User: Which sequence fits this backbone?
């Protein structure tokens, strides 16, 4: 029989017991996983080093310490009571403590895995401690089977909803050893390079040294965040058992955000497929709301969404009846698979054919709208009632909201409810800053808070559809787990893409980043936010800190509203301060951040005393309805609101002047100041102490469309790089931002530094890719004649580079082809898009100039992957083409010189040609992109590249800074004698 307040061991079913000082024994201080001392000792003896629930390491225990405890000797560890006191003293949320109460301990301490239990029992028999197995079996035999099944289900429902799997030691340990060895080899290599200058080509040598040091620093920044990668597993069945009982769903509501701007560039049919996949997701319909942001105020988007709402009445019940995947019709019907597999319903074939006909008719209607919208009437668009479309001027129009589907609106063809679908176009007026996508997303945050106020938000680009209908449930396995989700700001899913050729010439899939870097970051403080396919905790978007955040220094509690709280506390001395309220405002963050603790326990007077209405209005804006919604941690529309006025209030919060003199875009919502607002927003959340989670289900959660031709891909990379440069030049640069609180882990800071400094690698990369051609043209080299010991350092360096790559492939599962494509495009993007991003970023900062690199499209084939061979002229193509021409000319010149100089020149030529071919091989996909399918390079590219290469060669011959004076005098004498 369990003593009052003492949980039962999850393994053996016995009481966890007490520590020598009389307190309850705690095995894991992270999640309070119930495990007795005997079972913990057996786990340590068997080699287990981490908690089976949360993955935290048992660093505070050893077998010796547990033996000492059994003898009555204190091992100096924290007990459960002291752990709770420390947690409460740091400002822990009172609701979180309920998970370890006596009532809940009964629910979470049912016997676990049978195999593990038998192992423990056999061990106990050998130790002659407890022999109750037979009696327990007889007792279970007396229980009816139905009751046993119910108890088994309740025990499974109490299990954790997810599990963390650190990489096996036989994979990660060699990887860490090689990283350390590579650091040592790099140090020895640079010692040799610095102490052995090349006097005959000192300028070339110095340039190469600077470039190599920068590459080494970049590698360190990229490598250390991968120090402890992890994998995760979710248990969706346990989520259903816990939150879906007796036909009543207690799953948390989710608001979906879909953003679009120009329907002529972002086809409405693709946006419609994204919306349909959301409406048909495997989640309770009353828990889903889809908000579509039309930042271009296009009537085409509005009408296409109306057609989508009508078609969803047929599509949604069809998807749920037959459990099809994916639930975006365009991609479902285009699958080249046996669609009858696992479909046993006789009516499936007939209904599928009928649905395909309906979808083809839907496509015809949407495409007709697109064709009609190609030419805008002189008087502007007119709606069906004869009134002018309010958004005819996309830069000057009022806010517009239209609820197409809802809980009280139209039903599907089977009479069932449909999820809510809302069209939103925020107000635009001249003279106001609208902040592009980040501003549109913040408008959706406020609108959704007024209308539905779901505690979680999932944002998708208009070309990313839901590929796994259970993706939301995957995220809820983390968010709704009381032990895991209390300090999680977002769940990031990897990006996967359709329509990319098999070879993935330009690394569009970005496999190395999503399967290596992001998995590595998940083992630290969490992955960075990549802009789409992400489930947010709404409270984190409001600028709040996590509930489990440690107490702040006293110096950070000097704000006015905190003083008000102190006064209020003095009037209520009986209440525990840590349970009442915590100040999460930080001077170094310039934020109005509030950690609202137990706010529902206070009446209106106490609430008004605790929180100044004025301080909230300064942060969130002048909307009392929205401010009240921010206090509801579990979501839902406040009871005090009038449903008839919600739309009017929603229109108010998307007005163009609403964000003026507030914290929106500074500390609240999506952060302004960069075209890559995603990186900046995630960075701010991690600085506040939140952590994120990387979820990689077996079936990809979302899929999107990628720009597969060369020019579009380079412009995409240019936009990302420009955003990183903007962050680097702003106050949010990770090099100096957010040091005061110490809430950002150092490896995570290195990861963020790597994401904002990588465009600057383009400068040394351009120089380094030019060095082989210069060496071949001048006969000089950046490396002196190698001694035996120097040859060893070079050999060890190459071996360490190869070993790091091989071991990285081993633990990540990435193919060597993907790694090579990533390496190639790192060079291609570095010498083109990244270089222009640095140039444009400094121009924008210093002169306020916003340079645009225009794209001109040329015709492509209509065959499959025809867009791959579509050529679009852009200035970004000039630098890499010039490097190709110069290195090819250098190779020809080098071989010509070797033929004239005799066999002695062939040895030094090998090293020079090796580096030249290194450049050419990395730029080979770029060369194929220039040639296209017809193997023809546009004349303009050839002319520009030959012109630059010729000018460069002539200048080099005229002024060679690496030739000695004597050589120059001899050359001048020879020229004079020839002239004579």
Assistant:
């Amino acid at each position: 029989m369990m003593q009052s307040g003492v949980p039962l061991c999850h393994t053996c079913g016995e009481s966890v017991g007490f520590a020598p000082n009389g307190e309850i024994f705690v095995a894991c201080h992270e999640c309070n996983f119930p495990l007795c001392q005997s079972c913990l000792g057996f786990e340590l003896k068997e080699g287990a080093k981490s908690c089976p629930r949360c993955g935290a390491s048992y660093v505070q225990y050893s077998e010796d310490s547990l033996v000492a405890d059994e003898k009555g000797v204190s091992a100096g560890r924290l007990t459960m009571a002291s752990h709770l006191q420390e947690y409460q003293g740091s400002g822990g949320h009172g609701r979180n403590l309920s998970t370890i109460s006596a009532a809940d301990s009964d629910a979470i301490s049912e016997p676990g895995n049978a195999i593990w239990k038998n192992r423990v029992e056999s061990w106990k028999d050998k130790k002659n401690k407890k022999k109750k197995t037979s009696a327990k079996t007889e007792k279970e035999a007396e229980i009816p089977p139905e009751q046993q099944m119910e108890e088994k289900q309740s025990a499974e429902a109490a299990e954790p909803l997810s599990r963390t799997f650190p990489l096996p030691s036989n994979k990660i340990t060699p990887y860490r050893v090689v990283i350390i060895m590579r650091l040592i080899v790099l140090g020895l290599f640079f010692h040799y390079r610095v102490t052995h200058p090349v006097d005959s080509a000192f300028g070339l040598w110095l340039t190469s040294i600077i470039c190599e040091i920068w590459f080494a620093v970049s590698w360190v920044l990229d490598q250390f965040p991968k120090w402890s990668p992890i994998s995760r597993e979710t248990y969706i069945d346990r989520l259903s058992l816990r939150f879906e009982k007796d036909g009543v769903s207690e799953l948390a509501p989710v608001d979906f955000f879909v953003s679009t701007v120009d329907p002529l560039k972002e086809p409405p049919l693709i946006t419609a497929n994204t919306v349909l996949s959301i409406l048909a997701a495997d989640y309770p319909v009353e828990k889903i709301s889809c908000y579509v942001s039309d930042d271009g105020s296009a009537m085409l988007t509005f009408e296409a969404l109306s057609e989508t709402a009508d078609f969803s009445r047929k599509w949604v019940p069809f998807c749920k009846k037959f459990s099809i995947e994916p639930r975006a019709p365009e991609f479902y019907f285009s699958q080249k698979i046996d669609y009858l597999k696992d479909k046993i319903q006789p009516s499936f074939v007939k209904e599928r054919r009928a649905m395909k006909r309906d979808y083809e008719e839907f496509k015809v209607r949407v495409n007709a709208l697109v064709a009609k919208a190609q030419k805008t009437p002189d008087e502007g668009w007119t709606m069906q009632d004869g009134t002018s479309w309010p958004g005819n001027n996309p830069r000057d129009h009022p806010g517009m909201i239209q609820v197409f589907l809802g809980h009280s609106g139209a039903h599907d063809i089977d009479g069932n409810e449909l999820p809510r679908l809302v069209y939103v176009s925020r107000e635009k007026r001249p003279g106001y800053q609208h902040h592009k996508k980040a501003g549109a997303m913040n408008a959706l945050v406020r609108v959704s808070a007024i209308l539905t106020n779901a505690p979680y938000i999932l944002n998708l680009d208009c070309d990313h559809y839901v590929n796994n209908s259970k993706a939301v449930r995957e995220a809820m396995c983390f968010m709704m787990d009381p032990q895991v989700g209390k300090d999680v700001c977002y769940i990031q899913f990897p990006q996967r893409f359709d329509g990319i050729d098999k070879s993935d010439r330009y690394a569009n899939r970005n496999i190395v980043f999503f399967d290596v870097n992001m998995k590595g970051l998940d083992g630290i403080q969490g992955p960075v936010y990549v802009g789409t396919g992400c489930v947010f905790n709404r409270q984190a978007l409001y600028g709040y800190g996590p509930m489990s955040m440690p107490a702040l220094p006293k110096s950070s509690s000097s704000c006015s509203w905190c003083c008000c709280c102190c006064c209020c506390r003095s009037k209520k001395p009986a209440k525990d301060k840590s349970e009442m309220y915590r100040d999460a405002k930080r001077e170094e963050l310039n934020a109005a951040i509030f950690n609202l603790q137990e706010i529902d326990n206070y009446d209106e007077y106490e609430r008004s005393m605790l929180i100044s209405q004025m301080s909230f209005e300064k942060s969130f804006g002048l909307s009392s309805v929205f401010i009240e919604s921010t206090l509801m941690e579990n979501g839902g529309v406040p009871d005090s609101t009038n449903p008839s006025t919600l739309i009017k209030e929603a229109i108010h919060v998307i007005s163009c002047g609403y964000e003026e003199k507030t914290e929106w875009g500074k500390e609240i919502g999506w952060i302004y100041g960069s075209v890559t607002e995603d990186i900046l927003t995630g960075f701010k959340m991690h600085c506040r102490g939140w952590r994120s989670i990387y979820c990689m289900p077996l079936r990809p959660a979302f899929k999107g469309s990628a720009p597969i031709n060369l020019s579009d891909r380079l412009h995409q990379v240019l936009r990302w790089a420009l955003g990183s440069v903007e962050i680097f030049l702003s106050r949010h640069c990770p090099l100096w931002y957010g040091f005061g609180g110490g809430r950002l882990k150092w490896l995570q800071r290195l990861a963020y530094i790597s994401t904002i400094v990588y465009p600057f690698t383009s400068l040394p990369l351009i120089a380094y890719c030019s060095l082989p051609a210069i060496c071949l043209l001048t006969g000089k080299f950046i490396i002196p004649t190698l001694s035996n010991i120097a040859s060893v350092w070079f050999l060890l360096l190459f071996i360490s580079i190869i070993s790091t790559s091989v071991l990285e492939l081993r633990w990540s599962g990435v193919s060597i082809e993907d790694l090579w494509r990533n390496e190639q495009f790192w060079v291609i993007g570095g010498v083109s898009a990244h270089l222009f991003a640095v140039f444009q970023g400094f121009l924008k900062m210093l002169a306020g100039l916003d340079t645009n690199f225009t794209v001109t499209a040329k015709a492509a084939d209509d065959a499959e992957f025809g867009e791959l061979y579509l050529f679009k002229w852009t200035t970004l193509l000039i630098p890499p083409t010039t490097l190709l021409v110069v290195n090819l000319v250098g190779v020809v010149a080098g071989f010509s010189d070797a033929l004239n100089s005799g066999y002695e020149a062939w040895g030094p030529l090998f090293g020079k040609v090796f580096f030249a071919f290194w450049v050419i091989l990395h730029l080979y996909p770029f060369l194929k992109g220039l040639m296209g399918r017809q193997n023809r390079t546009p004349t303009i590219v050839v002319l520009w590249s030959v012109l630059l290469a010729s000018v460069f060669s002539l200048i080099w011959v005229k002024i060679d800074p690496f030739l000695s004076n004597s050589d120059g005098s001899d050359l001048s004498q020879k020229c004079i004698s020839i002239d004579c």
Q: What stands out?
A: The radius of gyration is 32 Å.
